[in-house]
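worker-03 picked up job from queue 'complexes'. Input manifest follows; two sequence lines, order preserved.
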Amino acid sequence: KQEVTQIPAALSVPEGENLVLNCSFTDSAIYNLQWFRQDPGKGLTSLLLIQSSQREQTSGRLNASLDKSSGRSTLYIAASQPGDSATYLCAVRFSGGYQKVTFGTGTKLQVIP
Amino acid sequence: SQTIHQWPATLVQPVGSPLSLECTVEGTSNPNLYWYRQAAGRGLQLLFYSVGIGQISSEVPQNLSASRPQDRQFILSSKKLLLSDSGFYLCAWWGWREGPDEQFFGPGTRLTVL
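worker-03 finished. Artifact:
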């Protein structure tokens, strides 16, 4: 069964700290991986998309890496700010199920001023 | 640019009543469309997806159904709601921004069944 896991489920850090969120997936045959942010009661906002052929993507203070062989992706957030507080979800499009995306359960991040 | 709309934003319905949630996409043609449900404290569950008009794939046997009467319209329905249907319903489409096959989400509908 193709699964996506995110650990920890919740994380609290002081403002200004650099942090890493983890995403693990059980099948290395993936098409792409996408990181999302979800604010309470809101829809999902796309942060970064990494294609299978790529190793990382960057946008501002965010950097996402992909290691297919180990089944892992990390989202690095530099110089965290209170506005970064949200739930972060990773989603994997496995090669066998091209039309579908499997989501992790998310990491709830709180950045303390 | 592409935009995805969902309505209503919130809905409170009694058990046994019917349901109709609507999702429309602007700025693209022939999108792949998706319905997800997010229950309290749980991850996103894919309910239905559609690759074209009248084409619906169901992922989870349940009390719900979906229809795609037009290219950019996706509807989630139920004839009789259950308490377990409560949750946050999200519509998404599959398109292009920085690369192909990126998913974009609507604002969601919060459904409470009493």
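worker-03 released lock.
The radius of gyration of chain A is 14 Å.
The mean pLDDT of chain A is 93.
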